Amino acid sequence: MLSLRFVLPLLLALLTLGILGWLRAVPAEPSVADRARQFLAAHEAKLRPLEIAAGLAWWNANISGKDEDFAKKEEAQNRIDEALADAAAFRTVKDLYQQRAAIGDPILTRAIEVLYLTYLEKQVEPALLKKIVAKANAVEKAFNVFRPKVDGQEMTDSEVRRVLKNSKDSARRQAVWEASKAVGKVVEADLKELVKLRNQAAAQLGFKNYHALMLYLNEQDTDELLKLFDQLDALTREPFSAAKAEIDQKLAADCGVAVADLRPWHYHDPFFQESPAVFAANLDAPYAKADILELCRKFYAGIGLPIDDVLARSDLYEKPGKSPHAFCIDIDRAGDVRVLANIVPNEYWMATMLHELGHAVYSSKNIPATLPYTLRAEAHILTTEGVAMMFERWSKSRAWLTAMGRAVDDPKAFDETAAKMLRNQLLIFSRWCQVMLRFEKSMYEDPGQDLNKLWWDLVERYQQVRRPPGRNAPDYASKIHIVSAPVYYHNYMMGQLFASQLHHAICREVLQGADPRTAVYVGDKRIGEFMIRRVFGPGRSLSWNALTKHATGEELNAKAFAADFRN
After folding, report:
1. Nearest of 558, 547, 106, 115 to residue 362 by alpha carbon
2. 364-378, pLDDT tens digit by residue?
């Protein structure tokens, strides 16, 4: 019989071995980083096919304008919203977001930050989300199928612009301008309901209104944004007034009216967001017989950012039912990038195509596939707009045209006109963006106010355009961005700042200190290399201001922009 002296140590040894074995069998608690990777993989597996389907549906609806295609677009968006509204998934990503300091991997941390904001937006009642999508879809469809009618004849957007640019008959101009604004009355009631629904969603998420919510989701601060726009107001007010006084003199002379009698229809686009073509040279002339697509193809290939595959997938000319505007879409974040346009051979569409293809090269074509799907996109809407705007500016450069092989009849006159129009464009667009930012902010803060009056008060204050006497129509509702890209427009202005800052950085770092006023990029593949390395490569792994500093050496500021419009 064994004594206790031998049994007890044996039992203790066996017990110790058993405990150790059990401990080895129990899986370790996954780290925060492991849980983040698991969530990221599950998100991509679930959302990627839904987002691809939604992108295709959105593309088809804008191409055809058909009811059934818009119904598919709405259904596809609802499926995405349902997935992002998953309360359990949100709890997981919120927990990861709160513990993000423990993740340790900056790429993974950034992905969780992005996904937290993505899921947060959808944590509202499912029925409300569907109402918002349905209402926005209906209004967007109304915009796409609307065509202005004058004397019983429908007009395309290009035809409207042609009249506003060339006609000297004030009555004709007024009739066409008013017809272009008639879409506002068509969508007014639905837009007001949409604003109400969006505010309800914001309130459910704890925000005072939808405008405040959208700024938060886009990692922007309301007070800082208003401070920036107040600074821009002060910076541009006097030079804009001087430029507009010169423009007004020429517009009045062209149309045979007094300056005091100028009204919105005397300017060359429906919103006075572009510089009227009232100077000596006709900037359309070099493009009248040009192959705009070939110019784009040659330019982007020359700087090492070819776009042939994008053009092959795109839909580029006018047809019934199709959206009359222009946009670029990345369908799958794997290279399926497309542009919708309505090209006619003039400077406006040359600029527009350079712009949209600027979006195209800042896409999954050139953002590394090694980044997680969630981060395989531009850093921010303002950075992609800035890239597009930087490239767009070349349409007004005679040096660029000459380098691209296009002759200009009177180089001196073209240079003088183009310089004025580009300078004026920066000033005019800046003042127009003031209207859009302040209108949307006030509209969401107080949707019940007289929005027609608010709109024209802001237009008169910032654009110095007199309201039509006795007119009481929802002209604000004729701007499609208020429906389809709400609380977005301020990013265009911030994009202009980014465009100037980036161009100056390229001139300084790539072109060895070239003068930003005269430097051109034609045929220089170093530009594409710089853009891929410093702008496109990080994707969304950096916030917009961190990306700005990475690309230009400074956080976003107005110094380069001010230098550009003061030249």
Report:
1. 547
2. 999 999 999 999 999
Helix (H) or strand (E) holding 71: helix 67-84
Q: Identify whether residues 111 and 235 lie together within a single domain.
A: no
DSSP 242-264: HHHHHHHHHHHHHHT--GGG--G
Express as a percent the part of the chain with pLDDT over 70: 95
Distance between CA atoms of residues 536 and 548, nearest Å: 11
Residues 391 and 532 in one domain: yes
Residue 472 lies in a domain: yes
Q: Tell me, what's the pLDDT at 7?
A: 54
In this prediction the pTM is 0.88
pLDDT at residue 517 is higher than 70: yes
Contact 87, 163 (CB under 8 A): no
Is residue 117 domain-shared with residue 161, that is, in the same domain? Answer: no
Question: SS3 for 82?
Answer: helix
Full domain range(s) for residue 493? 146-284+298-303+363-567
What's the angle, vertex CA 208, arms to CA 463 and CA 486, rounded to 5? 45
Number of domains in the chain: 2
> In one letter, which amino acid is 141?
K
Q: Token pair for residue 64?
A: 């055809």
Q: What is the mean pLDDT of the chain?
A: 93
pLDDT at 10: 53
